[in-house]
Write a structure and sequence with these properties.
This protein is of the alpha/beta class. Helix content is 37%, strand content 19%. The protein has a seven-stranded parallel beta sheet with strand order 3-2-1-4-5-6-11, sandwiched between helices. The chain has a three-stranded mixed beta sheet with strand order 12-9-14. A two-stranded parallel sheet has the order 7-10. It is globular and about 60 Å long. It binds nicotinamide-adenine-dinucleotide (NAD). Residues 6-7, 9-13, 30-36, 56-58, 75-77, 79, 94, 98, 117, 119, 171, 173-174, 180 line the site of nicotinamide-adenine-dinucleotide.
Length: 315
């Protein structure tokens, strides 16, 4: 299997690359390193296990790399939900335009399989929780969520028009080693700057599903191996949720800071486009035989430990 991974130097992409290399796939990574880091895949580059090409999907020169590829894992995107309100045109280009360019490059190269990383935010503030893939009211409340839903629609159209296989994964919050954004990362960095006080965006009651990156990659590869449809769409997450105040408690405990004052900015959400409650139904994936294996609480603790280790000393 020859695979191209866009965004393979990023957080989730690099863990996917680890798994593909491990099972012996030929891997080419295309990444512009805007948020990715070569250290995430440095070992594979040095060993010659993968080919790395620094290119921007909005530029030219990478399209020929799709020739001879059996499958594209299109992971590259601007994943910042909060920042998406500040520059909608930019995130449209990074997410929708880049995805359509990937689809066009596939069509021209004759590549017929695509795996795409979508998001829980396509559901908006869903009234059904846990939210199933067939939830009828897809009304994203963030620019980021809207761009991902648009990408899904384009993939569905291309796959059905040209008889491709596609897999679309709507992720809960994915956390763990090498992550470069998100609430745990944010808390650790704030506490390093000021170990006495922690600002929490919103009222701290926002409750969501948090899934470890290893479980996420495992679920992606499991679903891809066990389904073959023009448009196979799966939620990936844990079966429980955890609120932001509980995450703060885990992070402060793991950093050895029991006396931190929590300061809430107030309101039921952290920022424009934040969904206060998110829990995805993973029944569809479970019906194939997959099991989440861990909880949000355990995933948060594991991720906090990994990020504290990775980003410096733990005090
Ligand atoms: P990330 O920022 O670590 O990874 C994105 C990668 O894409 C980076 O390496 C970046 O350099 C690269 N990239 C971005 N724009 C590019 C471009 N125009 N050309 C080439 N490379 C480009 O983010 P992540 O958290 O690993 O997210 C990976 C994917 O998963 C994204 O599609 C994101 O929307 C999706 N997702 C992530 C989460 C999460 O909790 N982390 C949740 C839902 C969905």
């Amino acid at each position: 299997m020859n695979a191209v991974v866009t965004g393979g130097a990023g957080f989730i992409g690099s863990h996917l690359v680890d798994a593909l290399v491990e099972r012996g796939d030929g891997v080419t990574v295309i990444d512009n390193l805007s948020t990715g880091d070569l250290r995430n895949i440095g070992g594979h580059i040095d060993s010659g296990a993968i080919r790395f090409v620094r290119e921007d999907l909005l530029g030219e020169g990478w399209q020929d790399l799709f020739r001879g590829a059996d499958r594209i894992y299109h992971i590259a995107a601007d994943p910042d939900v909060r920042a998406s309100a500040g520059n909608p045109a930019r995130i449209y280009a990074q997410n929708v335009t880049a995805t359509v360019r990937v689809l066009e490059a596939m069509r021209k190269a004759g590549t017929r399989e695509i795996v795409f990383t979508s998001t829980s935010t396509v559901y908006g503030e869903a009234e059904t929780i846990p939210t199933p893939e067939k939830y009828p009211g897809m009304e994203p409340i963030s620019i980021y969520g809207s761009t991902k839903l648009a990408c899904e629609a384009m993939i569905s159209g291309y796959a059905r028009t040209y008889d491709w296989r596609s897999w679309v994964f709507r992720f809960a919050n994915i956390i763990g080693e090498r992550s470069n954004h998100g609430v745990i990362w944010d808390f650790i960095h704030k506490l390093r700057r000021d170990p006495r006080e922690l600002e929490i965006l919103g009222d701290g009651k926002q409750a969501k599903s948090y899934c470890s990156v290893s479980a996420c990659v495992d679920a992606v590869l499991f679903a891809v191996s066990n389904t073959s449809e023009p448009f196979a769409c799966f939620n990936i997450g844990t079966e429980d949720w955890i609120d932001v105040t509980s995450i703060a408690a885990i992070v402060t405990e793991e950093m050895g800071l029991p006396d931190v004052t929590l300061r809430y900015t107030g309101g039921d959400r952290g920022w424009i486009g934040d969904v206060p409650r998110m829990l995805l139904s993973v029944e569809k994936l479970k019906s194939l035989g997959w099991r989440p294996g861990t909880t949000s609480q355990a995933s948060v603790r594991e991720a906090a430990r990994a990020l504290i280790r990775e980003t410096g000393d733990s005090s």
